[in-house]
Design brief:
Elements (H helix, E strand, L loop, with lengths): L2 H10 L5 H10 L4 H9 L4 H5 L1 E4 L2 E4 L12 H11 L6 E5 L5 H9 L4 E6 L2 H11 L3 E3 L14 E6 L14 H6 L13 H13 E10 L5 H10 L3 E7 L4 E7 L1
Parallel strand pairs: 3-4, 3-6, 4-5, 6-7
Antiparallel strand pairs: 1-2, 7-9, 8-9
Helix pairs in contact: 1-2, 1-3, 5-6
Bound molecules: S-adenosylmethionine.
S-adenosylmethionine (SAM) binds next to helix 6.
Length: about 250
């Protein structure tokens, strides 16, 4: 299949950016016809080509692993600013998926100490490939080596935060190709965030900062949850990225 034929096939399948996507598929170097068919069947482009470009780094991806979103670059920016204020900071990427956030922070601050963890073994294998070590599998803090307890300077937790009743309205790419555990945040979308908050006080260093992405509608409840856990809340927004991050300081 030629690139021109790929463009026509992608366009006929309803792909809005057919030219751009065909160029990415060609550049990935695989069997173009097979890649085009996977894309036409609705698989996210990043899973088809096996990588996503995120916050200045190329992140390896595999089928079934959450595709890092551009808006999450705000999490990286806040994490890098915070880590940069400390000597020898320790950053943990909880609910790491592909490990994109940890990878981007490490790119910005070479040599920084980073750990990552996820409950999903497919995500853990993908993050291991991206980070090359210090990736742990398990439920939230239970995955982490006990010696990190009370020592975390920056705790990134891009938890699933879609309210269960909103899942049917997600784009088909997400619904059909990203695991429900990566998306479903329970009744109001904050169930996993609250579970992270429950452990954050014990795992953060004194003055340490937890960062989590939320929606505008979740801000009030998320602030109340942080304050109720004895941490200090703040919200950072970026209108260009359409992104909102809740921070919780110990
Ligand atoms: C929204 S995705 C974020 C992935 C990655 N941090 C990113 O920004 O691209 C949420 C991730 O949380 C993981 N997850 C969900 N529940 C979890 C739990 N109880 N413990 C650990 N990881 C969990 C999912 O497997 C998924 O990889």
């Amino acid at each position: 299949m030629t690139e021109e034929e790929a463009i026509i096939r992608l366009r006929s399948a309803g792909c809005v950016f057919a030219e751009d996507e065909a160029a990415v598929l060609v550049s990935s170097g695989g069997d173009l016809a097979a890649l085009v068919e996977r894309r036409c069947a609705g698989e996210p482009l990043e899973q088809v080509v096996g990588f996503a470009d995120f916050a200045g780094v190329r992140v390896r991806l595999r089928p079934g692993v959450f595709v890092p979103r551009v808006r999450s670059e705000l999490l990286v920016r806040v994490a890098v600013e915070e880590a940069g204020r400390h000597d020898d900071p320790l950053v943990v990427d909880l609910c790491c998926g592909s490990g994109a956030l940890a990878l981007a922070v490490r790119e910005a601050i070479p040599g920084i100490s980073v750990h990552a963890a996820d409950v999903d073994p497919v995500a853990v294998a993908c993050a291991e490939e991206n980070l090359g070590g210090n990736v742990h599998q398990g439920d939230l803090f239970a995955a982490l080596p006990p010696e990190l307890r009370g020592r975390i300077t920056v705790l990134l937790a891009n938890v699933p935060y879609v309210a269960t009743r909103h899942l049917p309205f997600l784009p088909a790419e997400a619904r059909d190709h990203e695991p429900r555990t990566a998306l479903d945040g329970g009744d109001d979308g904050l169930a996993v965030f609250r579970a992270v908050l429950d452990g954050a006080g014990a795992w953060l260093a004194p003055g340490g900062l937890l960062l989590s992405e939320i929606t505008e509608a979740q801000a009030g409840a998320a602030i109340a949850a942080v304050d109720g856990n004895g941490l200090t809340s703040a919200v950072v927004t970026d209108d260009d990225l359409d992104a909102r991050v809740i921070t919780a300081r110990r």
